[in-house]
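Weekly structure sync, notes
Attendees: PL (lead), two postdocs, one rotation student
Agenda item 3: pending single-chain targets
PL asked that the sequence for the first pending target be pasted directly into the notes so everyone works from the same version. It is reproduced below exactly as submitted, 177 residues in total.
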Amino acid sequence: MQSDSADLARRVSALEKKVASLVQQEKMVVRYGVRKRASWGIGALPIYDIAFGPDIESGQARGHAKGSIAIGDIATGFIAVGALARGVIAVGGLAIGLIGFGGLCISLLIAIGGLAIGAVAMGGAAVGGVAIGGGAVGYYACGAGSMGQHFVHVAHQDPSVTEFLRQFGLEGLCPLQ
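Predicted structure, written out during the meeting:
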């Protein structure tokens, strides 16, 4: 019994030392983000802004880049690249803009992504005036599972879709024709 309690005390002491060592190592790890901003720009908007990771000084948990060209965790600019990208041209996990590329893309003109929503949408799932994808919903739609006013899918071939896409040289985008 005594040897069991002595052994237990020794093991607890060894674990306490390991925990103290790990805590000390954790304190030594410096967690910081990256911040780069152009000193010049258009008006108050820098030509480029890059912001990744936390910024302890400003209290930001994620980098928010704002510039003509914005690259960061959250990016807002003419050209925006980031996990959340908002801009005229947006590229990111969630891309919102005039023209966008992303996992989830919501755009006014062209949307390309896993789920694409826009006037012209292309993606795994596409919703728009012209929608091309695995699942497509639109006025003109092309996809394995598509629906709309004029559509092409495995069991239905609407020649007006082919004609519409041919007018813009896009007939190659709808392989089901």
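Discussion points:
- Residues 153 and 176 are 6 Å apart (CA to CA).
- The two ends are 83 Å apart (CA to CA).
Action: rotation student to compare against the earlier draft before next sync.
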